[in-house]
Design goal:
Strand content: 25-35%
Radius of gyration: 16 Å
Order of helices and strands: EHHEEEHHHEEEEE
Number of helices: 5
Helix content: 25-40%
Largest sheet: 3 strands, antiparallel
């Protein structure tokens, strides 16, 4: 990993739309009013890019957060805010048997953190492998580590930021 830029706030630095990728230009009209999207693209425009890039952004009660990673390796990153939600519905949809087992034996006080660690690892794998959201159930943790949709092992790292956000990287 070369660099990760993480920015918290709602101040969007000006940037030219011509610096956006073709995909981002198409998304710009639909998401122009969303502060987290603009924040991530503002950060991306300022980052010195040499290599592969991955972006994640979230809106939260005090503003927005964006993370931009840059590496020579193929990778993915995902960022989520730790908050209560209907875990059962998501677990049934996208967790494999091993992940369900881990969640089941986890202490109640740690379930929120564990859920987001697993979930962000899965989303980071999807981004690294350029898969769609439907692949959440096909990627994830096993007894031997994180695996992609073909069952190949992937390296991963998870960080807790300010006891409020989880960010995971997969290579």
């Amino acid at each position: 990993m070369k660099k990760i830029y993480i920015y918290f706030g709602d101040e969007i630095k000006p940037f030219g739309r011509r610096k956006l990728s073709k995909k981002d230009k198409a998304l710009f009209k639909a998401r122009a009013g969303r502060v987290e999207f603009l924040l991530s693209r503002s950060l991306l425009a300022r980052a010195r890019r040499r290599g592969r890039v991955c972006v994640s952004h979230k809106k939260f009660d005090l503003g927005a957060v964006a993370a931009v990673g840059i590496s020579n390796l193929k990778f993915g990153l995902d960022l989520e805010e730790l908050k209560e939600r209907d875990f059962a519905a998501v677990i049934d949809f996208c967790f494999n048997d091993y992940e369900k087992f881990l969640f089941g034996v986890c202490e109640a006080s740690q379930k929120t953190l564990l859920f987001y660690q697993i979930y962000t690892i899965k989303e980071a794998i999807i981004k690294a492998r350029n898969l769609d959201f439907a692949a959440l159930g096909k990627v994830g943790l096993s007894e031997s580590g994180a695996r992609d949709e073909r069952g190949r092992l992937m390296r991963f790292k998870t960080y807790l930021l300010y006891d409020k956000f989880v960010i995971s990287l997969c290579f």
